[in-house]
Design brief:
It contains 14 helices and twelve strands. It is an alpha/beta fold. A hairpin with a 2-residue loop joins strand 11 (323-326) and strand 12. Helix 4 packs parallel to helix 5 and helix 7 (198-211) packs across helix 8 (218-226).
Length: 343
Amino acid sequence: MAIKRNKTSNPKPDKKERLINTKINQEQDNIEESIRPHSFDEYIGQKDLKDVLSIVIEAAKTRNEPMDHLLLYGPPGLGKTTISLILASKMGVNCKITAAPALERPRDITGLLVNLKPGDILFIDEIHRLNRLTEELLYPAMEDFRLEITIGKGQATRTRSIPLPKFTLVGATTKVGALTSPLRDRFGLIQRLKFYEPEELALIIQRTAKLLNTSITEAGSLEIGRRSRGTPRIANRLLRRVRDYVQVKKFDTITQELAADALDIYQVDPQGLDWTDRLILDTMITQFNGGPVGLEAIAAATGEDAKTIEEVYEPYLLQIGYINRTPRGRVVTIPAYQHLGKI
Ligand code: ADE
């Protein structure tokens, strides 16, 4: 199976690398590539999703047809790209990977579509960020496997309809509510990826540690798993940082104690919160009386980008019940006050 990555799609590296950052840069991308599971047997967690997709794949293969278009949504770092690559491998087709910000001009998407082979998967990350022209080109492509292009201007305008091979679009998004309904309606399958349990993350960490030739105890992997915000990308990143620490301290196995010591130094607390999470909660408590407070006000008071707060920090704080969303804004909960030692 060939993995084709549209090079311009790589997100810019962040100003400062944060341990809980879920974005990836080129170097991290290469590391992720080397530890990615290649089959559902190797892929830990997301059982319900794997069950659904296994049936869909089996049925499509029996009918000798490509799979229905699939929309995967959920917080970043949970494995949407990996799922898409595994689907391609199971179907025996190529997977072309791109992201909406790389599809600026109409010719970006048309170039990708006309070069697909029958059955190929086209993976578009951050699909909620497509511009209108590109999105409108996708409608007939998804529905009838045709490219409808307009040539010329004014009176001389003509449309041409070019047949495309049957393909599967896999769209990925962290914000399913931001998709337009015509686009959402064209996906035959819409599936959510859930945060992982600490025990599942511990298994992922043990698998990665083996691939990195690193020795780790079960309790060590669980300690890292508990601090990984339900996210494999973070778990694997924390594992590499703990491995650095253990190597420098001249130990040969990652134990629970060493993992906890290392992550304390990196200021990732036992709940997986880093200083930005704590800043957000602390600001909401001290400046806004615990809320309700709007996203923009939190962003202004913390100096963090509103989109990053909404897409990276908030989902996990909501998941562990440290904040609630109300019609009047976000509020901090009692467990968060307790966690921060405020009551
Ligand atoms: N690495 C990252 N995500 C994984 C998963 N779900 N299973 C196994 N290894 C992984």
